[in-house]
Design goal:
By secondary structure, the protein is of the alpha+beta class. The strands form three sheets. A four-stranded antiparallel β-sheet has the order 2-3-4-5. Helix 1 packs antiparallel against helix 2 and helix 1 runs antiparallel to helix 5. It is elongated, with a radius of gyration of 27 Å.
């Protein structure tokens, strides 16, 4: 006869697979997309420090710093505005390559084009003083502090035998069964994965119709491996008494 109930007290116990102390619980937090602005935040601080010591606010160094900040900010906004899965990324790379090759062909056929374009670019002089960069960095810093605080009031925790949802100012708690938990990992944007290793994690608790969808989970690959290792350490013992 096969039993799935708990073993008797005097029955020999099967040794369980040891669990890494670091895998006693995995914290999962879904962050807003503003976190991917950190390259612009870091560069704004660097630009501000440079402009503090810059002697000529309209010199070549200040102009180059302005161009660098605008380029990084533009790329950051593109990452926030669109998703770039693997196929789209290859398509973008192919389009950029085609444009570069087309520009090189155009320059070879029209050698007078480069001086005209160069003069037009040199006529544009994006310059900002130190307070501009520091104010920009301060606004992002305030937003990041608010995000960090709010994340402490809404997060998920995967434990060896249960899935916990911590939410609310008073730390409300929801419990779900974890032994039959299914997880799915999705990387919808290759650039977001490069910036913070982030992606989408989908949790399917047992006896729950709706899955739990967590977007922008940092370092998703390592956390997915930890969750898999954590859940695989659980053993269901089937005792056969005859």
């Amino acid at each position: 006869m096969t039993e799935t109930s708990a073993p008797e007290a005097n029955a020999p116990k099967e040794p369980k697979q040891p669990v890494d102390p670091q895998d006693s619980g995995v914290i999962l937090i879904s962050y807003p997309k503003i976190v991917f602005m950190w390259p612009s935040w870091v560069l704004s601080i660097i630009c501000g420090i440079y402009m503090v010591f810059a002697k000529d606010l309209t010199g070549t160094g200040a102009i180059n710093i302005g161009w660098a900040f605008l380029i990084v900010l533009s790329l950051n906004l593109i990452v926030l505005s669109f998703d770039f899965p693997r196929t789209t990324s290859f398509l973008v790379f192919a389009v950029v390559t085609a444009l570069v090759l087309g520009a090189m062909l155009l320059v070879s056929k029209m050698p007078n084009l480069i001086p005209a374009v160069t003069n037009m670019i040199h006529s544009i002089k994006p310059v900002a003083n130190a307070p501009f960069y520091f104010i920009f960095a301060s606004v992002l810093t305030a937003i990041y502090i608010a995000v960090a605080i709010l994340s402490r009031f809404d997060y998920w925790e995967v434990r060896p035998n249960e899935l916990l949802h911590h939410h609310g100012v008073l730390s409300d708690l929801e419990r779900f069964s974890a032994p039959h938990l299914r997880i799915e990992k999705e990387i919808n944007d290759i650039f977001e994965y490069i910036l913070l290793g982030s992606g989408r994690l989908i949790l399917h608790p047992s006896q729950e119709r709706r899955p739990v969808v967590l977007d922008n989970v940092f370092f998703i690959s390592s956390k997915e491996k930890r969750i898999t290792r954590l859940l695989s350490a659980l053993q269901v013992r089937v005792r056969d008494d005859r």
